[in-house]
Amino acid sequence: MNLIPLILYAAAAVAYAVHFARRQPAAGRTATTLLVAGALAHTFIIGMLTVRSGHIPVAGATPAISTFVWLLALAYLYTEVTTDERAMGVFILPLLVALQIIPAVNPGVEDRAAVLHSSWFGVHVSSLLFADASFALACVIGVTYMLLFKEIKAKHLGFFYARLPSLQVLDTMNRRAIVVGWIFLTVGVIVGTIWAAQARAIDPTDPRVQAMSLEDPKIFVALICWLVYSFEVAVTRLAGWSGRRAAWLSIVGFAIVLLNLVPISYFLTRSHNF
User: Fold this and answer.
1) Cβ 270 vs Cβ 207: under 8 Å
2) 51-93: pLDDT as tens digits
3) Contact 23, 163 (CB under 8 A)
4) Distance separating alpha carbons of residues 259 and 58, to the nearest angstrom
5) Whole-angstrom Cα distance, residue 125 to residue 61?
């Protein structure tokens, strides 16, 4: 089932690339249409899995990645509709395609362990995925900011200058995405702490529950993520950091998020390998 959204996302990626390179309105409309179709197909799949299991499919690395891709597609579409700007699509869609390959190739099966039946677990994972989607947008905005800044600094106003919003607009978008993501990340961390305490009471013998501590890479890196983004929120609001420094922090922060979302989730964690 996950193959259909992948095909539509890939087609949209090509259309966004054509639009970005040639600035053809028809290519832009085609790109948005394909992305909407992909998001709708993905919504249908998420909905079917939710009805089947009774909750949004987030239990397990592969279902969580699929849900993250879906949320990122919706978040980007919201940004595109509210700003009437398609330039970010050429940077967002390759990420959607790359991550959607994982559930398309290996759909995975949700774990039905007793500790996952808690509503706290659903809130915990959903909040973190919303945060990750916001951070992905911030990262892309940071990348585009750096590309445009480099072009302006070189006094060579050409390719990116003609296609991207102004530096001020990009900086504002970046700060908003980071604040939204930080709020959801904070909620996810707090709720995760509550869920971990509940899980120990439900099944203290489960080795995954026993591994829920800062010694586990998944939890340790999640804390690092929170510290990085808390630092960015603080310095942008209190110290007036903006522009390149904020852009770099957004890029570094999401690199850590991706590290935690894929390789650590699949190969290193002992507490979150549901």
Assistant:
1) yes
2) 887 777 887 888 899 999 999 999 999 999 988 889 999 999 9
3) yes
4) 18
5) 11
For 111-132, what is each residue's pLDDT tens digit? 567 777 788 888 999 999 999 9
| Paired tokens of 87 | 């330039």
Cα separation, 215 vs 221, in Å, equals: 10
Tell me the three state secondary structure of residue 87: coil
pTM: 0.91
**Under DSSP, is residue 40 helix (H, G, I), strand (E, B) or coil?**
helix
pLDDT of residue 110: 62
Is the CB of residue 203 less than 8 Å from the CB of residue 209? yes
* Cα–Cα distance, 90 to 144 (Å, whole number): 10
> CA quadruple 191, 108, 45, 94: dihedral positive or negative?
positive
Domain ranges of the chain: 1-110, 113-274
Rounded Cα distance between 266 and 71, Å, is 21
